[in-house]
Task: structure prediction
Amino acid sequence: MSRALAFLDMPITWQKNQKERVSFVLHTLPIIKDLVKISKAVGNMFQLLQGYSAETSGGLLITMSREGAQKYLAEIEEREGCPAWIIGDVVEGDRGATIKEDPAIVHV
Result:
């Protein structure tokens, strides 16, 4: 049985193997256009904005320095013609993952 990973599944999987005391704080959520409206219309049953909806799967979560990330984003855009985003920060913490209150939504 396969299962799609949601936004918060990726950091939770990562934290199980993380040795340093750091956490993910996500501030941006790339979400398929109009799914926020649909999610609200069905009573948030899929917890889209809480990071648990499988709709958010398919992304690649990479951790690197902010400077390296900026260069990587530009290279992805140039080579693939597709945007990529910095969606959060790695901060000192308890190896957890959270989404900031009122995250930025990128409609894709």
In short: Helices lie at 9-15, 35-41, 66-80. Strands lie at 22-31, 88-92, 97-107. The two ends are 28 Å apart (CA to CA). Residues 1-5 have pLDDT under 50 and may be disordered.
